[in-house]
Structures are given as C-alpha cells and as structure tokens.
Specification:
It comes from Psychromicrobium silvestre. This protein is an alpha/beta fold. It has six helices and nine strands. It has a single domain, classed as 3-Layer(aba) Sandwich (Rossmann fold), CATH 3.40.50.1820. Helices cover 33% and strands 21% of the residues. The mean pLDDT is 93.
Length: 212
C-alpha cells in the first residue's frame, strides 16, 4: 500500500490535473506536503511515501554515497507507483498527470518518465539527478520529449559532478529542458526555485492555473 497525502478532499479531485510529488532519500511525504501551497492552485497535489524503509524515514530504493543503485529495487519502486497511479487515475479521471521530485525523488520521477513517457504532461526535478542505467538506455532516446524543469544550486555537494553531467546530458537529449540555477540553497528547495517551478507548470499544464 502506498501512503499518500492529498491537497484536496476526495470530492474535489475528479477531472483536475494531478501533480505527484516525490520526496528525497531519508525523508517522507511530509517534506513535500509543505510545498503544496507553492504549486498552481488548479492542481490536485499528492505527496507519496517511498517504500524503502530506513531508520525513521524513507527512500525509493537503496543508494550509496556515489548514487549507485540496485536496478531491481528501482523497477519495483516504479511499478509500485504505476500501480497506485493507475488505480487513482481510473477513480478520478484526472485531466493530466505531472511529476515533481526532489533529490532521489527526481531520480524516481525521471525513471517513471523513461518507462512511460506518454503518461506525463510535465516533470519538475529539484536538486536531484537522473539514474545512469545501461538497462534504461535501451529504450532511448525517448520517442516523446516531455517538458522538464531542472533546478539546482551550483554549490550542491550531495549530487556528485559525474551525476550532474550525466543528468544534463540525458535531459538535453530526451526532454524539452528548462534549466535554472540558484545560490544559497544547497541541497534543499528554495523559494525562488518553487516560484519558477510553479510558473513552468502553469505554462505547461492546462488547467493548473485557477484564478483566485
């Protein structure tokens, strides 16, 4: 079972654009819930909890210091999200589905995109990376280039330079990339970054802007 926190009550979700928000390694869904208010108000936002249990937190799959991973865990995590998403989409008939991920959540969001790019309208990646996987590259370059916003701090010490280089190369080749760099936020999520991500989603996702 996937733990999920929604921004809207069940009665208000049908037919809206959905924004699935994915937390980073060693965090939980509440770290994304706090950013619901920064997203365009037309969205139904949902923050999911990763299924990889840590001491008192969660991830999506095991990572080491160099961001290496177990591919079987990656695919299992992706399939869990797909199964949850398919069920909820059938229930509510969302007008579209977009993704937002922070840190490992960006790796998860981009993996979901790689495996099912036709399912997503737009993707936002914050202070994260794209998995360097030979098995995933068999499916690439992607046939559909989805709009992708990538924001990061140039002084982020968590994502190593090789991962940054691969991420930029992959995004340039496989998405319609909007790239933004910030200072002073490290590996976190900055206020200016959220404003830019919200503006990006407003432009890319029909129905995401709802006049107050």
């Amino acid at each position: 079972m996937v733990n999920a926190v929604w921004s809207k009550p069940e009665s208000e979700r049908a037919g809206t654009p959905l924004l699935v928000m994915l937390h980073g390694y060693g965090a939980d869904e509440q770290t994304m819930v706090r950013h619901f208010g920064a997203m365009p108000s037309g969205f139904t936002c949902v923050a999911l909890r990763g299924g990889f249990e840590m001491d008192e937190s969660y991830g999506w799959f095991l990572l080491d210091y160099f961001l290496n991973n177990d591919f079987a865990q990656v695919i299992a995590a992706a399939n869990q999200v797909y199964a949850w998403l398919d069920t909820e989409a059938a229930k509510y008939g969302f007008s579209s589905v977009s993704l937002l991920g922070h840190s490992q959540g960006m790796a998860m969001a981009s993996t979901l995109l790689r495996l099912r790019q036709e399912a997503f309208t737009a993707v936002v990646g914050l202070s994260g990376f794209v998995l360097n996987s030979e098995l995933l590259t068999v499916l690439e370059p992607l046939g559909t280039k989805v709009p992708f916003f990538w924001g990061r701090d140039v002084d982020d010490l968590v994502i190593n330079p090789d991962a940054v280089d691969y991420t930029e190369e992959w995004l340039q080749e496989n998405t319609v990339l909007s790239k933004a760099q910030y200072s002073g936020m490290g590996h976190g999520i900055g206020a200016a970054e959220l404003v830019d991500a919200s503006s990006f989603l407003t432009v890319q996702v029909p129905g995401s802007f709802k006049p107050s």
